[in-house]
Design goal:
Belongs to the PCNA family. This protein has about 230 residues and is mainly beta. The protein has two domains: about 1-85, DNA Polymerase III, Chain A, domain 2 (Roll), CATH 3.10.150.10; about 100-225, Box (Proliferating Cell Nuclear Antigen), CATH 3.70.10.10. The protein has three helices and 16 strands.
């Protein structure tokens, strides 16, 4: 049995809602002294979500011997809800995750609300978005028979802008990759969790792109997405 009591249940609620958009059927939970983590992959194995919440922001974190079920207790001001979940063994291989900056050729940090609006607006024109990062900024584009839509965000770290309002770019190479907009729009459900989103991109197509929502000092929510391979 595992018992975890959180100070702010809304944080975990928004995380689960964001992952639910990926149509996840099962997830791997891990409890340790460092904290609570969750890994979940969509049925097509194109996208994966990773949750990490530090243990020192938990009111109580206790791990007992193995059991066949887990109990989630949600306590509101005048209501207590209990949910019992059956645990299952998932036969999966360990997933190697690279989220360190040295593995990526471009890193974009921008307001999460702006990123959400861009994904919503581009969905009108197409199902696939091209993200291109240059020294000048980051461009988002999509095209369809009815036309082409391009949204460009300049690299801007003006002293007059707060950190969560600026678009900052670090890069060693120009990067241009294509992604399914359906996945990106599902990731933006995590916007209430963080004022910013950081995107890690690499020209090595075997590396998934990382969309990271940092939740203050509590932890983070990361989405990993495979780029669409270009057709030659």
């Amino acid at each position: 049995m595992v018992e975890a009591r959180r100070v702010q249940g809304s944080v975990l609620k928004h995380m689960v809602e964001a992952i639910n958009e990926m149509s996840v059927n099962c997830a791997n939970f891990n409890f340790s002294r460092a904290g609570f983590s969750l890994l979940a992959m969509d049925p097509t194995q194109t996208a994966m979500a990773e949750i990490f919440l530090r243990s020192d922001i938990e009111r109580k974190l206790a791990c007992c011997s193995k059991d066949s079920c887990a109990v989630v207790c949600v306590i509101a001001q005048d209501l207590i809800s209990h949910f019992m979940m059956n645990l299952v063994d998932i036969d999966t291989k360990p997933v190697l995750i690279h989220s360190e900056a040295q593995y990526y050729h471009a890193i974009v940090k921008m307001p999460s609300a702006k990123f959400s609006r861009i994904c919503t607006d581009l969905s009108i024109f197409g199902d696939t978005v091209s993200i291109e990062v240059t020294e000048e900024g980051v461009g988002f584009s999509t095209k369809r028979d009815i036309g082409t839509s391009i949204i460009f965000c300049w690299h801007n770290t003006s002293v007059h802008k707060a950190d969560e309002e600026a678009t900052a770019i670090e890069m060693t190479q120009t990067v241009s990759l294509n992604f399914g907009l359906t996945f990106l729009n599902s990731f933006t459900k995590a916007t209430p969790l963080s004022n910013t989103v950081t995107i890690f991109l690499s020209n090595q197509l075997h590396l998934p792109v990382v969309f990271q929502y940092q939740i203050g000092e509590k932890g983070h929510l990361r989405f990993y997405l495979k780029p669409i391979k270009p057709e030659y």
